[in-house]
Write a structure and sequence with these properties.
Elements: H1 9-20, H2 23-35, H3 39-67, H4 71-79, H5 84-88, H6 92-123, E1 134-137, E2 140-143, H7 144-153, H8 156-176, H9 179-205, H10 210-218, H11 227-241, H12 247-253, H13 261-297, H14 303-312, H15 318-351, H16 356-376, H17 398-436, H18 444-453, H19 455-467
Antiparallel strand pairs: 1-2
The structure holds tryptophan.
């Protein structure tokens, strides 16, 4: 992140899009969509992004631009002089800052898996992942590609090694401060990733049985709608747009005062959602073509790692495309991880008043500590179910638990704080006036309306989740 500020709107859009597009779009979105009913999840997600996500994204940016502080400082500044309830809103800054500390370790775990798959496709013949090939994991026969994935994550040494490679790359980038270079590199890698995804989508269209998959992905089936669809879509929205974790406040703080915030935010929102949509187009029809809707509904964190190699095994030269695909995903993941780690390092060094170098060491320790425990959740600690005492979360492993706590508990709480800050502490009219700054703003009514009601669905999600009674 640049201390000197962005050179212009393009600078902001690129930085925000670079940090927004990552594993959230390519790993998390497709598996959640497959799991929670396909089309109906997609529809819920898009509606939420255009209303709720938009309102929060623009609020966070404006808060940053108004205060020119990090999240903790921004909340503190805006709440200064307020008493009782409104004064207490300043703790929201802390909630926003703690979330990235929870996300980064498991983000790096998945980053490690991606690193492994670059290597796996480099050294293995793709036929090893063919959809019809069989292999065993823990004595059970299954598709070779699923067995490969499960055998890898349940190997404590191998999986830790790849995790560490990913963490060290990220930390080196931060320590050497080569972010600027990475960003320039990203300008080439990002379009390449999108082109490759489009190519794979076209290929998947012609897979036998893909029609059913496209129907599953694109045609909403209301019977599949449930309370969990909304919870999952809302969590995904926070994660993918990087909101409710202070990152957008920080970016807003780097924007020039006279910059057009409204269209910048629009572009980030559209771009991020388009990439997620594309990733879904690429993976979901293939899953359904290979294993039917049942396979889609049983999808979990391994979806991308199990299905994509099967796709690549299906055509000549697939291995080259496979390596390219995972290299590009690795880049998207690394740029996001760098910006996540940077947020954490800044927060720790400011709040603990320690040097940047010491802060990097602290964050590294935290990431490696929690990350290794998360990884062991698939091997040595595979019996651990942290939320096992709540019926609904009985099956959540450690990674699922961290993901759930951050996306479905802390982020909604953070969003509640942000909303109260905007609506009650600053004042909605004053806030809109600031964002508008004399320009026409088409979605102003939508923004105001959403800000007034955002709190309610967030509260519901958190409270209903906490009780754990609802399926
Ligand atoms: N939005 C990123 C993704 O889709 C993940 C992410 C969450 C992130 N919080 C962040 C990235 C903060 C950078 C900074 O993968």
């Amino acid at each position: 992140m640049k201390k000197d500020g962005f050179s212009g709107k393009l600078g902001f859009v690129l930085a925000a899009a670079g940090s927004a597009v990552g594993l959230g779009n390519i790993w998390r979105f497709p598996y959640l969509t497959a799991k929670y009913g396909g089309g109906i999840f997609l529809l819920t997600y898009v509606v939420l992004v255009l209303t709720f996500g938009y309102a929060l994204l623009i609020s966070e940016n404006a808060i940053g631009r108004m205060t020119r502080r990090s999240p903790i400082g921004a909340f503190r500044k805006l709440c200064a002089g307020k008493h009782s309830f409104l004064g207490a809103v300043r703790w929201g800054g802390w909630i926003n800052s703690i979330v990235p500390l929870i996300i980064l370790p498991y983000y790096c775990v998945i980053g490690g898996w991606v690193t492994k798959y670059v290597a796996a496709l480099l050294v293995n013949p793709v036929s090893a992942f063919h959809k019809d090939a069989l292999a065993t994991h823990a004595g059970k026969s299954m598709s070779a590609s699923a067995a490969y994935f499960l055998n890898f994550i349940s190997d404590p040494v191998g999986s830790t090694a790849f995790f560490l490679v990913f963490v060290i790359i990220t930390a080196l980038v931060i320590a050497c401060g080569v972010e600027k270079g990475i960003e320039r590199f990203n300008k080439i890698m990002m379009p390449l990733l999108i082109l490759l995804c489009i190519g794979i989508c076209v290929y998947c269209m012609f897979l036998p049985g893909a029609g059913a998959g496209f129907r599953y992905y694109l045609m909403p089936d209301v019977r599949k709608f449930s309370y969990m669809t909304v919870v999952a879509a809302m969590g995904q929205l926070f994660f993918s747009l990087s909101i409710a974790m202070g990152i957008m406040i920080t970016y807003g703080a780097y924007m020039r005062r006279n910059e057009d915030l409204i269209s910048g935010v629009n572009q980030v929102e559209i771009f991020d959602t388009a990439v997620a949509f594309l990733a879904g187009m690429m993976i979901i029809p293939a899953v359904v073509a290979f294993g039917g809707e049942k396979a889609a509904e049983n999808a979990g964190v391994g979806l991308v790692f199990i299905t994509m190699p099967q796709v690549f095994a299906g055509f000549a030269g697939g291995r080259i495309f496979g390596v390219m695909f995972f290299v590009l995903v690795l880049f998207a993941a690394a740029t996001s991880a760098v910006s996540l780690m940077e947020t954490n390092v800044q927060m720790v060094s400011q709040e603990m008043r320690i040097s940047r170098f010491k802060a990097i060491l602290c964050v590294l320790g935290e990431v490696i500590g929690i990350g290794v425990v998360t990884l062991m959740g698939y091997s040595l600690l595979s019996h651990v179910r942290p939320l096992g005492f709540i019926e609904k979360y009985r099956n959540f492993d450690i990674l699922d638990t961290l993901d759930f706590l951050s996306n479905s508990v802390l982020m909604p709480v953070g969003a509640i704080f942000t909303t109260v800050l905007v609506v009650a502490v600053v004042g909605l009219e004053k806030f809109s006036h600031y964002i508008r700054s004399g320009r026409p703003w088409r979605r102003e009514f939508l923004f105001q309306f959403c800000m007034c009601v955002v709190v309610i669905p967030c509260l519901l999600v958190v409270l209903l989740n906490a009780t754990g009674v609802l399926k």
